[in-house]
Prior knowledge:
Shape: elongated
Strand content: under 5%
Oligomer: single chain
Mean pLDDT: 78
Radius of gyration: 26 Å
Low-confidence stretches: none
Distance between the termini: 49 Å
Helix content: over 70%
Amino acid sequence: MANLLSFGADAMAGGAFGIIGTALGRAASYFERKQTFAQEEKRWGHELRLHELQMRANKQETEMELAIAAQKGSWDGLKASLDADANTGVAAQWVINILRLVRPSLTLLLWLITAWIFARTQNGDIASAAVFAATAATLWWFGDRAPKPKPGFLS
């Protein structure tokens, strides 16, 4: 049977990697939102310049009103699209309860498999790898459960 100290060290290392993975995921998410915001700013600036050129070329009041109406419709469409994307819909309570049990069920199954491997194997390296994987996965799954930032929030 493998040394219990070795398993403890593997569990701690797995936990550290799980936490590091969650932190790296959050850092990558921050930079992704920042880049998306910068791209949207450039796109909006480009659209604004195009509208200014159009208004200079067509000084008639009716054409300016059409451009304003088109811009408003574009923003309303974008807002409706974002609202539709954010709305996940309404589901039955039993469906919601089952969805909430996925991570805990997978975690319990993973630890049962790890315990089975630990009990059945004569190779300490295999048992250590299973403990490392289970600890890293558990901390990664539940470390990622933190509330998500609000849209448009960069810091």
